[in-house]
Design a protein that fits this description.
With 135 residues, this protein is an all-alpha fold. It contains 1 helix and no strands.
């Protein structure tokens, strides 16, 4: 290689070095911007992690509460069935009592009893003051 070619290559490298060095401030600014964005993203990530932890805790509590409520509903259903059975038994007992009362009433009608033996006898009313006849 002759001196002219070497000189030309060196000038070309110097020109390219100027272009590259001209890009360095832009790269440094871009790196700062990316660093700031990265820091902001890390903060947001930390906030989201905290929210996720809180939501997981709330979900766990809600699931536990849901289980408690399901057990309570089952208990109430069982209680309801027991009460329905008792109501049916009471209705049957009342129906038997009504049948007995009706039969008793039919016997009373056949015997000609018009008054219940359990009725209270009327209290004698005090006599109203009578006016003396005018003479």
């Amino acid at each position: 290689m002759d001196d002219a070619q070497v000189r030309e290559r060196v000038l070309q490298w110097v020109g390219e070095a100027r272009e590259v060095l001209g890009l360095v401030p832009q790269l440094i600014d871009g790196d700062r911007d990316l660093g700031a964005k990265s820091a902001q993203t890390e903060k947001e990530n930390e906030v989201l992690r905290h929210e996720l932890t809180t939501l997981r805790k709330e979900l766990s509590e809600a699931r536990a509460q849901h289980g408690d409520l399901q057990r309570e509903v089952e208990d109430l259903r069982t209680q309801n069935e027991v009460l329905r059975g008792e109501k049916d038994e009471a209705a049957q007992a009342l129906a038997k009592v009504l049948e007995t009362v009706q039969a008793t009433n039919q016997v009373a009608v056949k015997l000609g009893v018009t008054r219940s033996p359990f009725a209270r006898s009327p209290q004698p009313q005090p006599a109203a003051p009578t006016a003396a006849p005018a003479e």
